[in-house]
Predict the 3D structure of the following.
Amino acid sequence: MNLERRASELLKELISINSVSGRERKIQEFIEDFLRRLRINAQRQEVERDRFNLIYKSRGPLLISCHVDTVPPAGMRGAFRPRETEGRIHGRGASDVKGALASLLTAVEIFKERYPQEELPVSLAFVVDEETNSALGSEKAKDLFQDAELCLVLEPTYGTFCTSQSGALEFSIKVEGESAHGAEFEKVENPVKVCMKLIDLLEERLERSVNVIHVKGGSKNYLVPKECYALMEVKVFEGERWEEVEERIKETIKELETSCKVLYGREDAENFIRFRESELLDLLKEAFREAVGEEPREGTMPSWTDAANYHRAGLSCVVFGYGSLKNSHTERESIKVEELGKMADFFLKLFEKLR
């Protein structure tokens, strides 16, 4: 069975295991058993009750970290029933990030088949809780790898080596007003319309788009709603600090002409990160050229990743993987079988170079 097919079949098994954040135990037990059969003894690191990371430490300078949790189905039918069509595997986590996980485990298995007496030359961290704001898994794991030089964090990056990561400020807005009968809506100010007006004003003042993640306001009853709640996010660019962006948001709220009460709440914040440089990046690129036959690209990861925690622990970081970030978390989530083969071959070449 070739690399693509082995990784594909393994990915189907992984997708079939529901590992939505908070329910990672079964997939961690699967990975633990998989590694044990290869005589690789990963250690459990307790994160919370009934939640644990899996950690394997080698004497090499490279750590590969992969989160095992996914977002919920969120409208994806048969999210945990993988299907293969037209060279793609569909299912929750296919691209974020069980495709890379399947390719990594396939490469580990083949390496141990070729070199059964040798130690795997990289450290591994399979972490929980990445798909939440708390990221408890990598926050706990980072302290175990102070002697590592570089952490390769697996995420869907379209095959790009991301040596920096975009910042973001996630915040909530609650607009409170006066309710009224729907027939006399002109007599009060509608909190939903105030919220919409604020979004337009924020984009103008901040000179960037506002990502509206969630909006809740009103009901089917014939009345003007009393309040509107919105969860939003804006990107924080290189050279900025999220505190500065937050202050501009608060100033914009003060500018807003409204009789409603507008409440601001910070949900999460992270500055733009340019990761520390490492000579190991050249080794990653060399393995990529040999495996994929293309010149590697560098870029910026537009989303938060576990790399932020490893960066704070002093490690150099690179975020990498195949798959579409745009389609991750959606009902379209999938990954090309061909990409699974490329990643597996890349990992295998990398292991052999680090022997």
